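> call design_seq(struct)
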């Protein structure tokens, strides 16, 4: 599991190209302000222990959100941080479960459309905790 976390004053996305054939057909555009964006890469080894990696995602995102004084979190599947990749089905379930748990902890959670390349618009400040990386 690898997580790149970026605090953004403004994060926008628009669906571009469908990358996972089984993904739902979606045409979506959204802008969110003052949000922590989690670029999450699930690896093959992660499939052996979903609950462990869910907890790691949640703890890291909550910590980074607190450091950046926000209650808003975006979960984004980002399969470009390692050569090892978990299955799309596992990754989608991992993000869905993590999102539900974050919502239960009173976070405002967004999830980018799964299985799509996105046009991104990101404005991030140059502060000490605005860009963080974790390898679990």
């Amino acid at each position: 599991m690898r997580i790149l976390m970026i605090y953004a004053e403004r994060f926008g996305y628009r669906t571009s190209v469908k990358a996972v054939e089984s993904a739902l057909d979606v045409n979506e555009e959204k802008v969110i302000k003052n949000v922590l964006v989690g670029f999450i890469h699930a690896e093959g080894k992660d499939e052996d222990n979903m609950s462990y990696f869910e907890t790691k995602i949640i703890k890291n995102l909550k910590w980074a959100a607190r450091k950046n004084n926000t209650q808003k979190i975006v979960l984004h599947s980002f399969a470009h941080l390692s050569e090892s990749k978990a299955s799309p089905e596992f990754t989608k379930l991992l993000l869905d479960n993590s999102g539900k748990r974050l919502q239960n902890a009173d976070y405002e959670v967004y999830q980018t459309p799964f299985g799509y390349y996105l046009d991104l618009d990101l404005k991030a400040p140059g502060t000490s905790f605005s860009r963080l990386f974790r390898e679990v």
